[in-house]
């Protein structure tokens, strides 16, 4: 049975993932020179392996055994009729692809860590804003947190809606959507 909000049934996971996929098309087409879908996971996410040093790899569940090293995560949370989180997780090369694209720099331009993190946060913010506008706003008031960057390990907040994996020019990113298990109230400002 679907959850009901003030404007009827809340969006399904498939609706949220479709909006995220459209957001990637819109946002990345203007800022990343090359991107292609590698995988789409509905519900369950790729396996995550954390080694003794705390380093994270995503492992795809197919016969290829493809592993993607994840170095950082940019997060935007949303709250309202539906609470959740969009996480942009990426390899170092993926983070540089996004930052250089957003800042319109050459492929070999050096960047400070702060500039890369700011670009990741802005990208996560744009993607979440697109999902909010297209799918969440019609169901009631939704607010978004200020984007933040954290370590690479997943921080599940409830059931996963799914994940989109993209290969960029040099790196890889995973975009993950989560629903919060229980509402938390106000967002930090």
Describe the structure.
Helix 2 crosses helix 3 (113-136). This protein starts with a strand and ends in a 10-residue tail after the last strand. It is of the alpha+beta class and 189 residues long. The radius of gyration is 16 Å and the shape is globular. The protein has helices at residues 13-31, 92-102, 113-136, and strands at residues 4-5, 8-9, 35-42, 47-50, 56-59, 67-70, 72-80, 84-90, 142-144, 148-150, 160-168, 172-179. The chain has one domain (10-179): 3-Layer(aba) Sandwich (Chemotaxis protein chec), CATH 3.40.1550.10. The model has no long low-confidence stretch (mean pLDDT 85). The strands form three sheets. Strands 3, 7, 8, 9, 10, 11 and 12 form a seven-stranded antiparallel β-sheet that branches. The chain has a three-stranded antiparallel β-sheet with strand order 4-5-6, with no helix packed on it. A two-stranded antiparallel sheet has the order 1-2. It has three helices and twelve strands; from the N terminus they run ββαββββββααββββ.
